[in-house]
Design a protein that fits this description.
heterodimer; A: 103 residues; mainly alpha; Helix Hairpins; B: 165 residues; Four Helix Bundle (Hemerythrin (Met), subunit A); 6 helices; 71% helix
Amino acid sequence: MTPLSGYLLVSALLFCIGLAGALTRRNAIMVLIGIELMLNAANLNFIAFWRFSENPETMTGLMFAVFSIAIAAAEAAVGLALIITIYRHFRTANVDQVEEMKG
Amino acid sequence: MTLPFAIIAGLTVGSAIAAMSLRNLVHCALSLVLTFAGLAGLYLQLNAEFVGFTQILVYVGAVSILIVFAILLTRSTEPKDEPATVTPWIGIAVAISAFLTMALAVLASPVGKRAASPMGEVSVKTLGQKLMTDYVLPLEVMALLLTAAMLGAVIIAMKDKEGSR
């Protein structure tokens, strides 16, 4: 079986791809997708550390991942609703052109 | 490193790179679906069946559909000739340095070489029992959070009828 470091490296790669996307893309939806990738990388870490822990029967990491997925779903719903509202207001989803918070 | 792990990991990372670098937003969303499915495969490899199927249901099923809808609702006036990124090299340099830091830490740590411990029966039944006993408070908080998020998303995205804009 693959050692723990393999999973950790895949997770680190996913996190950094998401980070690069969130930092460089101009479309707000792409920024959100980058954040989702980073969340998923953290989830993969939770599952991997759970599987390679001393006693996986306690299922702590598994539970944390389940709750983390639920929170990520809520975050995606609210984030996309915000992006749609911003688009309706400013007529753009480009994060560089949304410069004021005043309505 | 086993062959199935290499295939799934390569697929996941490759489609993640595609999701972050393609120009067409719909293509990005479709690559993202592939990434989520690959992650579900990795979870299944790690004996986390329930989380794997939850990943497929929540991410492949719900979140990606939400993203596709948001893309379709916000793309009508996107200028075509604008670059998709601005000063990409700074962000990419930050990400690469972060990855090198993490990779060096992972490769240097003795934890990374640990083999998987033999595992007893971890069934969905025991998971459900734990959810209803040890983790019942987080579960209730989660229910409250999901309700609040759903109401909040609907209210935020609702069109105001007065036409103040």
